[in-house]
Amino acid sequence: MRMKVAVLGAGGLGRAACRIIGMKRELRLTAICDSKGLLVDPGGLDCEALACGSGDVVLSYPRRAHETAGPHADGGVATATALLARHSEDPLGELLEHGGDVDAWLVTLPNMPNEFIPGVARRFVQATDGAVFVDVLKRTAAVEQMFALEDAAKASRSVVLTGCGATPGLLTAAAVLAAQSFIEVERVDIWWGVGVANWEAYKATIREDIAHVPGYSVERAKAMSEAEVEAFLEKTGGLLELHHMEHADDVLLQRVGVVQSPEQVEVGGVMDTRHAKKPVSTTMTLTGITFEGKRATHRFLLGDETTMAANVIGPALGYLKRGVWLREHGIYGVFGSTEFLPMVVR
Amino acid sequence: MRMKVAVLGAGGLGRAACRIIGMKRELRLTAICDSKGLLVDPGGLDCEALACGSGDVVLSYPRRAHETAGPHADGGVATATALLARHSEDPLGELLEHGGDVDAWLVTLPNMPNEFIPGVARRFVQATDGAVFVDVLKRTAAVEQMFALEDAAKASRSVVLTGCGATPGLLTAAAVLAAQSFIEVERVDIWWGVGVANWEAYKATIREDIAHVPGYSVERAKAMSEAEVEAFLEKTGGLLELHHMEHADDVLLQRVGVVQSPEQVEVGGVMDTRHAKKPVSTTMTLTGITFEGKRATHRFLLGDETTMAANVIGPALGYLKRGVWLREHGIYGVFGSTEFLPMVVR
Predict the structure, then answer these.
(1) Is A87 a catalytic residue?
(2) Do the domain assignments include residue B342?
(3) Could you say which of A94, A97, A98, A138 is catalytic?
(4) Based on the domain organization, do A92 and A136 belong to the same domain?
(5) Is B4 helix (H, G, I), strand (E, B) or coil?
(6) Cβ atoms < 10 Å from Cβ of B161
(7) Taking the mean position of all CA atoms in its chain, how far away is CA A210?
(8) Is B277 a domain residue?
(9) pLDDT tens track of chain A, all 346 residues?
């Protein structure tokens, strides 16, 4: 039995999720939405078509599917094969209503404002009869709001896994492993490099990063016009170098006892919005004291050829499978990416 | 409530385990045995004294404890504070009988012959009313025998966690994390360095490594006299370089789907039996293909200042806490170190 997965958000990361889901024999993509519409097909959507599509998720879905469907009174399509393709003012609400029997929801929506995805998660957890909900949130404030859903998640027998991308996510879990050799962890330093040849494919991600620049905020970055973003990037030759980022690696590591205080965790990095090549290598460096009193450093390095999409969506799907496992074992609540090893999705 | 831990084996790794357990406020060492005797104290043994002791675990335990106890008819001591210090022909059997209410058993005994620790695990799983049993086994054949205990473990509501040291263990779990970025993993290469200034503290570990040298076997290494081991090491200036080791990283990674075949995993390393400095750095290198078709390599590096003891016992105690968690959640059976993230023990 394949796990039935719905993807919320059809931007760069959402489309990458479609492509990877299409390559996994354990997964079936049964629903996706963007801000304007939704597609649902319990038999499985065409992942590659969605990955290659651009713009509107409903309009860009292959005509073939639309044709077998025929038009519907409300301007969408519904068919004998149960394809639903519909523009909507409330795609998330319609997905909840018409999305069918979904095993897990993967959220790749931009989180602007900070409370947006926690709000979506609350809505899904409360509306479904036990959901597995996985996010790739980055900001500390947002992840803290996710943990506030603990009672709601338990009440509905849901599993919420938060901060399950690259950082927090893959690199933060690596810090939990690295910490095993030490009696006391002094510092965790995460330094990431991301290169995207075409920034328009990752508009939201780049805005989220601009929000970390001193003097900017999530609200200010969200309000910028595309021309303003372009002008901003023009000043630095397309590079964004960020330090002391408000990333949830800190609370996720504190929560499991790797560090005593969020100040022991530092996240920063460099994004090149004009070249696919990473401007710096991505590393997680943990320094601690061993039981013999020796100071030492463990390090986890990501290959430069791995993209942000591979390092965010791969782990997110591994945590998604873990979430389904947790739910099958009757373990409900909100968990961070530092609490479980993601599973390998075949 | 501290977790009550018993350590089976009081060699180099067993004594390191005592020291680390003594530094953790979540753990209490309530029992230990070696091949000749056992110590039990539900109130908590003196970890530092055990870590500093040498030779016989019963005789080397502080006289203070013996004195408050007074002699017993059978040559051991038993007291009002419930200390039991006794030489025994069957320390494991006596530990089962007199070890008290233990939350988890950590096995640091040498595994020679290959079926020794799986046999001990079977005995403990069958004799107790639900045990958590953690080993730091290395050989593929031994770990496979541990997995054969699945039915027995489930029947007694036990959790057995196998291969939970450094390799397999810490580095193998790091490979599960690294695999998340890839659609297909091509190779996992583990290359370890160990330096021990005084090989006599790690006699069993070194014999286990000699058993990997072409022309040797577990039986032949076990049968070597100490003089023969010394003569063997003399020929290489105290260095042992090993390739194509029969380490269970292969089956543990295949089991969770990181690799399709054990041949994709290679374990080797260099042990210096005369210097504490590591002769080479310990690394886990995973090469795979991303969903975009790019080949890349993730790497996990251990700091040279971390000893074998830190990298074996630290993770083993993290898995031990995970084992207690699994049992509390009603999840029983035999699991590998690649299935769960070890927890941080405070």
Answers:
(1) no
(2) no
(3) A138
(4) yes
(5) strand
(6) 28
(7) 18
(8) yes
(9) 899 999 999 999 999 999 999 999 999 999 999 999 999 999 999 999 999 988 889 988 986 555 444 444 445 555 545 789 999 999 999 999 988 889 999 999 988 888 999 999 999 999 988 889 999 999 999 999 999 999 999 999 999 999 999 999 999 999 999 999 999 999 999 999 999 987 788 888 899 999 999 999 999 999 999 999 999 999 999 999 999 999 999 999 999 999 999 999 999 999 999 999 999 999 999 999 999 999 999 999 999 999 999 999 999 999 999 999 999 999 999 999 999 998 888 8
The SS3 of residue A196 is coil
Asked if A221 contacts A139 with a C-beta cutoff of 8 angstroms, the reply is: no
Residues B84 and B156 in one domain: yes
pLDDT tens, residue by residue, B236-278: 999 999 999 999 999 999 999 999 999 999 999 999 999 999 9
Same domain, A195 and A96: no
Provide the number of CB pairs (under 8 Å) joining chain A to chain B.
165
The helix (run of H) or strand (run of E) holding residue A278 is none
Q: Is B332 on the interface with A (CB under 8 A)?
A: no
Give yes or no: residues B136 and B11 share one domain: yes
Asked casually if ipTM beats, i.e. exceeds, 0.90, the reply is yes
Q: Which residues of B touch A291 (CB under 8 A)?
A: 16, 19-20, 23, 309-310, 313-314
Burial of A49 (C-beta count, 10 Å sphere; 0-12/13-18/19+): middle
| CATH number of the domain where residue A42 is located | 3.40.50.720
Contacts by B123-127, CB closer than 8 A, 24 or more apart: B123/B92, B123/B93, B123/B96, B124/B92, B124/B96, B125/B149, B125/B152, B125/B153, B125/B156, B125/B158, B125/B160, B126/B152, B126/B156, B127/B96
Rg (CA), chain B: 20
Q: Amino acid identity, residue B143? A: V
Q: Are A162 and A180 found together in one domain?
A: no
Residue pair A190/A249 in contact by the 8 Å Cβ criterion: yes
**Among B53, B310, B337, which Cα is nearest to B195's?**
B310
Cα separation of the two ends of chain B? 12
Sheet holding B283-289, edge to edge: A239-242, A265-272, A184-195, A283-289, A295-301, B295-301, B283-289, B184-195, B265-272, B239-242
Question: In chain A, how many domains are there?
Answer: 2
Same domain for A37 and A146, yes or no, is: yes
Residues 64-123 of B with CB under 8 A from A: none
Any B CB within 8 A of A254 CB: no
* Cα distance between residue B122 and residue B105, in whole Å: 13
Residues B127 and B187 in one domain: no
Q: Do the Cβ atoms of A257 and B23 come within 8 Å?
A: no
Positions of B annotated as catalytic residues are 138, 208, 212
Question: Is residue A100 within 8 Å of A31, Cβ to Cβ?
Answer: yes
Single-letter code of the amino acid located at B103: D
Structure tokens at A323: 């979430």
Q: Is A346 on the interface with B (CB under 8 A)?
A: yes
Judge if B40 and B136 occupy the same domain.
Answer: yes
Domain contains A111 = yes
CB proximity A23 to B under 8 Å: yes
pLDDT digits (tens, 9 = 90+) for B295-326: 999 999 999 999 999 999 999 999 999 999 99
Per-residue tokens: A209:
């990063």
Q: B174 and A174 in contact by Cβ < 8 A?
A: yes
Confirm whether A345 is domain-assigned. Answer: no
Joined together, the tokens standing for residue A173 give 């879990």
Q: Which domain holds residue A113?
A: 3-166+309-336
3 state DSSP class of B25: coil
